[in-house]
UniProtKB/TrEMBL annotation:
This is Luciferase-like domain-containing protein. To bacterial alkanal monooxygenase alpha and beta chains. It comes from the Bacteria. Residues 25-310 form the Luciferase-like domain. PANTHER family: LUCIFERASE-LIKE MONOOXYGENASE. InterPro entries: Bact_Lucif_Oxidored (IPR050766), CmoO-like (IPR019949), Luciferase-like_dom (IPR011251), Luciferase-like_sf (IPR036661).
Length: 342
């Protein structure tokens, strides 16, 4: 028997919130709902809630990620609040050090700084963000070094300081959907979060690479991996599959270069996508978990056993806000009732 075996019952569960702006709603309402979601998932025992930096997307309201984090942290008391992530090449590292140093000063011990290297948008918007389209994310490692320098304790004679920021204890995570960030996180001894909710084909490779090159640091003495999961938990498999059609249609719009606000679920996806689009989306969303409580429990435990995840961060994208809350309630109940695997 192995009482230490990982399962949904004994690893932390967290929330990824893209602040969805659904059809018929407004950014204001969506942001208010994000605070409500944070309060409810905090009460349910979720470990952290993260917000992602995306730009020029009509259906996502978290572009000003640091502001959202401050708003949600101010309205909660225990749950960790952070970025999943800040796209560092879009910003001057000193500015991010100041922003998250300020957040840490306001909400000590509750802020996470998750970092990615993609633009989080299209090429035209990348240019509008004043990001260098040639270097792109290739200088990410140097930018990370600069950010960590500004967050480190100051020293005599230091000419440029991030205030607040200098000496901040804000944890840094590296995020990724390929091997690049996995290797960098491992070599630096940082926690790593993999975007298996939209890049499952690289999942096991990235996990293996991260663990293989991991070097203990003053942050971690052993690897720590959090994995993204698209989840729709409902009263039945059929209901969950129907609710999930809203996210699929949204993803289809993104694939076609025409991102839209998320609409109501469909009775059937027949005729809404080509066979090639269907195959592509099914591959990209291959780690999604949909179903009734018993189905979700089995699929998540299988996923945890396969990957050895230390934590899961769950993204529930459904049109009906109450159904979204219900999905997180069901998952919380599954966790409380699930026996420890042996």
């Amino acid at each position: 028997m192995n009482p230490a075996a990982k399962s949904i019952s004994n690893i932390p569960l967290s929330v990824l919130d893209l602040v969805p702006i659904t059809e018929g709603t407004s950014p204001s309402l969506s942001i208010q709902r994000s605070l409500d979601l944070a309060k409810k998932t905090e009460a349910l025992g979720y470990n952290r809630i993260w917000f992602a930096e995306h730009h020029n997307m009509l259906g996502i309201g978290s572009a000003a990620t640091s502001i959202i984090i401050g708003y949600v942290a101010n309205g909660t008391s225990k749950i960790r609040v952070g970025s999943g992530g800040i796209m560092l090449p879009n910003h001057a590292p000193m500015v991010i050090a100041e922003q998250f140093g300020t957040l840490e000063a306001l909400f000590p011990g509750r802020i996470d700084l998750g970092l990615g290297r993609a633009p989080g948008t299209d090429q035209l918007t990348t240019h509008a963000l004043r990001r260098d389209k040639i270097s792109g994310g290739q200088e990410f490692s140097d930018q990370l070094d600069e950010l960590r320098y500004f967050l480190a304790p100051g020293f005599p004679g230091q000419k440029v300081r991030a205030v607040p920021g200098m000496g901040s204890s804000t944890p840094i995570w590296l995020l990724g959907s390929s091997g690049y960030s996995a290797e960098l996180a491992g070599r630096l001894g940082l926690p790593f979060s993999f975007a298996s909710h939209f890049a499952p084909e690289q999942l096991m490779y990235a996990i293996d690479l991260y663990k293989r090159v991991f070097t203990p640091s003053d942050v971690l003495d052993k690897p720590y991996i959090m994995l993204g999961v698209n989840l729709v938990a409902a009263e039945s498999d059929e209901e969950a599959e129907k609710l999930a059609t809203s996210q699929i249609i949204s993803f289809l719009g993104l694939l076609r270069g025409n991102p839209k606000q998320m609409g109501p679920p469909l009775e059937s996806l027949e005729g809404h996508w080509t066979p090639m689009e269907k195959a592509h989306i099914e591959q990209r969303l291959g780690s999604s978990v949909l179903g009734s409580p018993s189905t979700v429990k089995q699929k998540l435990n299988d996923f945890i056993e396969k990957t050895g995840a230390d934590e899961l961060i769950v993204n529930t994208m459904v049109y009906d806000y109450e159904k979204r809350i219900r999905s997180y309630e069901i998952l919380s109940q599954i966790k409380k009732e699930a026996p420890v695997m042996v």
